[in-house]
Each structure stands twice: as structure tokens, then as C-alpha cells.
Amino acid sequence: MPSLETNGTNGTKNTNGLPDFQFFNVIDGKPRTSKDNHQVIDPRTEEPLWDAPIASTKDLDDAVEAANRAFKTWRNSTTAERQKAVYDVANIIRDNADILTDAQMRETGKSRPMSRFDVERAAWHFEYYRTVALEDELQYEDDTIRILATHHPIGVLAAISPWNFPLILSTVKVVSALATGNCVIIKPSPFTPYSLLKFCELAQSVLPPGVFQALNGGADLGEKMTLHPGIQHISFTGTIAVGQRILRNCAGTLKKVILELAGNNACIVCDDVDLDKVVPQVATGALFHAGQVCVASKRLYIHEKIYDKFLERLVEESKKFAVDDDESLAFGPLSNKANYERAVGFIEDCKKNGYKIVTGGEVKPREKGFWIPPTIVVRPPEDSLIVREEQFAPIVPVMSWSEEDDVIARANLDNAGLGASVYTPDLDRARKIASQLESGTVWINQFERPHHAGYFAGWKLSGFGGELGKQGLLHYCHTQSLQIAK
Predict the structure, then answer these.
(1) DSSP structural state of residue 473
(2) Secondary element (H or E) of residue 241
(3) Is 0.90 surpassed by the pTM of this model?
């Protein structure tokens, strides 16, 4: 690999004020340029960023060949060797935190403090799997037989990554693959290629060639990955429609598939909560990163007895998520023009249908950047666009409820199987409600944030398979049953 000085990662400024970074596809341990490049638009300034190389079909074939070659050795590495490798990668992330923070903040529009937190969280994922691994499990034993379940890597993983949390969500896929003896080729979102290309480049110093590679491109590259016979496993985070297409494509070669898809998540607030404590939590769950979080509270259901007081406080709390705070730890612009235009469509639909907007609703509060202020919509009907579809923006419908059976039925949409939250100090009541919510994760008395030690999977239209925690590693392995006669 080139030194930091020669590959542009020394942080000097170029003529347009950007750090003088260079970005490469990474194939078989080496950087590779391309005759075709594209530039991402900074969501805060709407100015172009760096050139990002676009991988060709030959680049993909070369990467797949290198990964399959590396897999022959990497699959036989010991758990201890792999755990040392993932710990070394964690240190690479920490040692280069400034570079990764700068690249990600510009491509996503996040503030520097928010981007720095993402980088640190990415390192935590590798740190966690330094001590967590799958072991052989005794399934059954009697006088005649002993049955063990053992776990073996699948092969080459193609990780197709989202744009909202490039480093956090992608490192889940990378570390899960590496920790279980797989090789991985990561494809960043074309909206956010920079941080992942740089991360992969830097990680080459501590990993064997071909074990971890990166290819940048658009939907056509992702499509080729899902159809490539040399790739055995796909992990994707994104929309339901694309996830369904991936599943159909992978059926031809019976690839293993993990899909984390849309989450039109419900937040249920009971009548016995402490408003001083709960309103700020719910606001953060709905508005953090401008609502661009897979598990964000997309639909708020507030008990009728406290609805008016809750709404009044929520409006005041939303003012803390300001469009003029460039160092905010919680808020920023929408990360790309496509998502901004989609969000504008939700607001226009609310206005066209006469829904009451009690705060926000402006679509261009700043001269530059893809900003939408926190927007709260009061009691839109259940069949409205703002309730039926995931907004992925700081636009929050707030509904009321009085009967538990009714609010649970309203919460359980087909596209709401990723997460949910329940607020009540009565834990028996919380557990009862949670057990009836058709979601892979339910957060009780806290806003929704996946934890690296907790299994995370979507139900219904929100996912297929899962990741995170010790259980998540099972989705990166084949299980072999050893049945040993006595």
C-alpha cells in the first residue's frame, strides 16, 4: 500500500478547502484506480467532493478470484488468529480516526462530533468480537451417540452497504465475516463511498491480501454481485424493494442472504410515564440524524390521557434539533438530494391533505444544504402516506390511543418489523405490550439504538436473517452436525 503521504491521507488542504485525500478500489491487498470516477455532493454545502473510482466488471471478477484464493487459507485460521486480526483492525480504526471522521462527515453531512462517534462505534464492533466467538455445542448425548454442532465459514461475502451510517453498519458485516473465517468484498453506497474505501485501504496493513476488499459502484455493481457465481453470501442493508430483488437474484445460486430492510417503527407511550424524562428520549429516537436511522421512531402513539401535554413538550424539545447548529451531536441535513426530495414529498402530501403541522414544514430553511427542520404532524389518519410509509426524515406523525389491543394492531404494519419502543414504568405492562409487537427488537424505556451484543433482525418485510451479538455470527456460518457413535 502507498504511504499516507503518497496516497493523500496526510490531511493537507487542496484548492477547494478539502483535505487532499485520494480514494481507490482495493483488490487483492492493493489499491486500484479506474478510468471512470464520480463525485459525491456534500449535503451541507452542495459542493462536489473527491473523485471516487467506479469499479468495472473486471475489477469485480478480480476481487472475487482473490477472495476465493484467500479463503482457502483464511478459513483454516484459528479463532485466536482471527480474534487478533479483528483487534488489529480496531486499532487501525482508532489510529486513523481523524481521517475516517473527516471523510464520513463530508459524505454524510454529519457534524464532526457525530461522525467521530460513528468511527469510535465502528471500532467497538471489532473490539467486541475480540472475545466473542462460536464454540462447538453439544446437542445430544446418550449411551450410543454424541451429537455436536460445529460452525464453518460460508466463503466469500458481498456486503452491500447503506449511506446513513456507512462505517457503523458496514463494520458489522465486515467483522462478522472476518471473525467467522469468511472473506468479504464491501460495496459502499455510491452516496457515501469515501470512508469505506479509506477504511479498507488502511486495514490492508494488518490483513492477508484478498481477505477484505472494497469496490465502489452503483446499483449495477450490486446487481452483478448478487448474480456472481463466485460469491456465496450477501449481506444487504437498504430498502424493501431492493432487498426483494436481491433475494430473487440469489435464488439462482442459492446464496446465503442477510437483509436488513425498512423499519416503519412504532413508539408506544403509556399514560403513566414521567414526561420530563420520556419526552426528550422520544424526541431523540425520532429526530436523531434527522430521522435517517433504520430503527428511528417513525410513528408515535401517545396515550390519549397525556396526548396534549406530551405534544406541547415534544414541540419544545424538537427546537433543540436546530438546523443552524453545525456542531450538533444529534441533528444534521438529509444525507443526499434523493432522500431530501423524497422527504419534501411527504411534507407536500401532508399539506395537500390538510393535516395539521404544529412545527416545521419548511423545505428550504437554509440557502445551502439538504435541510428539513423537525416537523410534527398531529393525528394524521392511519392510511395516510406519512403513517403508512417510512419517512427516513425528521417528519414525525403523532397519533393517540386509549386501548392496548387497538394500538398494538395499528403498530403491527408489515413494514414495521425491524424495531419498536414502549414507554411505561410498569415493566409487566411493558413486557405484555412488547410480546405482541411483531418486531425483531423492542426497546423498553429507551429510544431505539442497536447494541453490538444484541441480536438484530427484521421480521416480515423488514428483514431476512440477522446480525450482531453472538447469535448473529450463526448467519455467517454453515452449521455441521457431527454424530459420533460410542
Answers:
(1) G
(2) helix 240-251
(3) yes
